[in-house]
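Is 1-deoxynojirimycin placement plausible here? Inputs below.
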Amino acid sequence: MTLHDPALAGAPATHGAAEWWRDAVVYQVYPRSFADSNGDGMGDLPGITERLPHLRDLGVDAIWLSPFYTSPQKDGGYDVADYTDVDPRFGSLADADALIARAHELGLRVIVDIVPNHSSDQHELFRRAIEGGPDAPERDLYVFAEGRGENGEEPPNNWTSIFHGPAWTRITEADGTPGPWYLHIFDTSQPDWNWEHPAVHELFQDVLRFWLDRGADGFRVDVAHGMVKPEGLPDAKVNAEGLIDIPEGEVPVYFDNDGVLEIYREWRPILDSYEGDRMMVLEAWIPEHRLPLYIGPEEAHQSFNFGFLQARWGVETMRAAIEKPLALADAVGAPTTWVLSNHDVIRHASRYGFPPEHRFGEGLSREEIPDAELGLMRARAATLLMLSLPGSAYLYQGEELGLPEVADIPDELREDPSHKRAGVPGRDGCRVPLPWEGDAPAFGFSPTGESWLPQPAVFGELAVDRQLGVEGSTLEMYRRALHLRRELGLGRPDAPVEFLEGQADGLLGLTRGEVVILVNTSEQTLPLPEGLEDAELLVASGPVEPGTVPADGALWLRRA
Ligand code: NOJ
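Reply from A.M.:
I modeled the complex. Tokens:
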């Protein structure tokens, strides 16, 4: 095996190209935790702008910014009080403009988050709905309903919130009398919009135009399967224990209703009317067979494919998690997406430390991370597998450093609403501020050493400056793989994915043209498959003995 040295320079190949999103690598920035420029311990837009060269050098094509809009921050900004302004904690509209301009200068596209299922309870329209009394016209903009029971003292139906507890909260009118209930599929501070009302449609069309005018290249649509509720707000089915029953492969009654598709058909022409390829990617947790309805030339461009993230470590499970979405992508005529981590799930460097029978979505603990070393090895291998596949890939900030989930955040510092509502640990462990410099206060996150969540000591060892230029570091593996992916066009569909059959137990192999990708899911080093002994080693997830595939590791080879 010989070692390939990719050129680590040049503008993104996709920049300026038509339909750039089809094979883009998009890096998710969680603004609170990326970089803090003013020292208040909370990341901000100028902090992101300063650090954009890191992302250009990493080799990504675009960034997706989680919400930075005016918000009381009850759900990390997914509770929006003003969709067309910047929260003062994060900066100003001028800072947003500067960020977009700088990103474009560096050849990076910018995707912003849009949150159309709900607003904050501090949104002016919701405040008017409450303060204006029973006849306030703004009540029609949200989902208000009379309660059941003799005096309306019971919620209008049995729906529960994704953050635990009832999905309804009863208001008290100004004169002290109990009023109707409002729907919040998430926190009480996140009332659901009423998408039956034309004014809500107009409001969001204006929001899209607002950000498109400012140069946004696309939108990540939050709870993209949620906005339209079933007629009559029927009860959800419950099981014998009285709990809402959601059979495998189905979604709660308030998600995935056909009316949602109309919204995308309304939005698509708006995006298409702008120069450049403006796109939308949906956060839609829907059954697979429904995906073709959401994606298409008149609907959305793409949707997150969470199956790969949920797949257990192993040949059959991972292979299935690749084959299924590829087949679906063919059916919808749009490439699939790949994602291993985001701000909602346990970081994959920790997830893979659990025994393979555990998987995300089935009660993984966020408080006890079993085997950090194994987790990171497998995570790096899974990343190499993901980056070898056609379609677009979404990375989450800090995964390029191999950051683990932080398990030991003191309860009183946790901010996730699900922690506050139900006492579960919640998602803060994957949102801890990034380490940039191992020896600086707050590891370079903030000039004062402040950090809205405490960073563990291991973050110092994993800081960007400790990994940059260090052979074998996670950061260098990402840089190498991303540059190779671009150079070899692996994101494009030209070379089909062909699995290697009849391999050793635990070995997953596939080819993309002249490139061979091998993942050893077993705990033993395995010999290279026949015929690959002279292949060129392009990148490896860890140290490699010549002629072998390391245990819990992955390789990209080029056939001799
Ligand atoms: C999905 C977002 O990714 C998550 O962080 C948020 O809590 C919910 N949607 C509600 O907006």
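Short version: Confidence is low (pLDDT under 50) at residues 1-16.
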